[in-house]
């Protein structure tokens, strides 16, 4: 069983969660129009205010959660730029592997570091995960649970688009009708 004893996505009822990455999703590498640059220390982030509008719209269907290496700092630096309230976050850097976590090929550990913490955080609730890095191994492990799990891989050059948001709304609608 690919997920071991980790809670299976969608095995518990409840409002779905929406896990959000920042870099490559809300801060794309080569954005087109509509993005404003903001200096955060020595970093420059590119944020589109439309993303804030879209995420507030999605919050009518999902509980939003940061799933980013920014962790709690996303509330300090990114949320205000999007006019979002503080959101819970998945503790990625401090996560300690647990019995029953999904198996991870050794060479893919760096790319798969979010998968087990997200599964533990969701604790069986249905969820969607929006990220620019969702490895094939994760997609394979998630396949049997696709009714309670939606993986949304975005192109890091362009980030989150209206097409992604519309797909997330449709998926949440299907969950609500079940």
Order of helices and strands: EEEHEHHHEHEH
**How would you describe the shape?**
globular
Mean pLDDT across every amino acid position? 86
Instruction: Work out the helicity level.
Output: 25-40%
Uncertain ranges: 106-110
How far do the termini sit from each other? 26 Å
Biggest sheet strand order reads 4-1-5-6
Q: Number of DSSP helices?
A: 6
The whole-angstrom Rg is 16 Å
Structural class: alpha/beta
Tell me the β content.
15-25%
Largest sheet: 4 strands, parallel
β-strand number: 6
Note down, in words, how this protein is organized.
The structure is a single chain. The chain is of the alpha/beta class. It has helices spanning 49-58, 73-77, 79-82, 115-122, 136-142, 162-177, and strands at 17-20, 36-40, 43-47, 63-66, 127-131, 149-153. The strands form two sheets. The chain has a four-stranded parallel β-sheet, covered by helices on one side. Strands 2-3 form a two-stranded antiparallel sheet. A hairpin with a 2-residue loop joins strand 2 (36-40) and strand 3 (43-47). The longest helix has 16 residues, at 162-177. It is globular, with a radius of gyration of 16 Å. The model is unreliable at 106-110 (pLDDT under 50).
């Amino acid at each position: 069983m690919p997920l071991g004893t980790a809670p299976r996505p969608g095995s518990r009822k409840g409002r779905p969660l929406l896990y959000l990455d920042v870099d490559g999703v809300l801060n794309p590498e080569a954005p087109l129009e509509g993005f404003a640059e903001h200096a955060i220390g020595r970093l420059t982030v590119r944020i589109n205010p439309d993303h804030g509008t879209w995420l507030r719209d999605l919050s009518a269907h999902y509980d939003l959660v940061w799933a980013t290496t920014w962790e709690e700092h996303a509330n300090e630096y990114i949320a205000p730029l999007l006019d979002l309230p503080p959101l819970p976050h998945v503790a990625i850097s401090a996560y300690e592997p647990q019995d029953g976590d999904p198996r991870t090929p050794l060479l893919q550990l760096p790319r798969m570091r979010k998968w087990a913490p997200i599964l533990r955080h969701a604790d069986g609730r249905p969820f969607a995960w929006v990220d620019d890095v969702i490895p094939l191994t994760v997609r394979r492990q998630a396949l049997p649970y696709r009714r309670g799990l939606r993986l949304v891989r975005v192109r890091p050059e362009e980030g989150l688009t209206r097409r992604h948001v519309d797909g997330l709304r449709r998926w949440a609608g299907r969950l609500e009708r079940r």
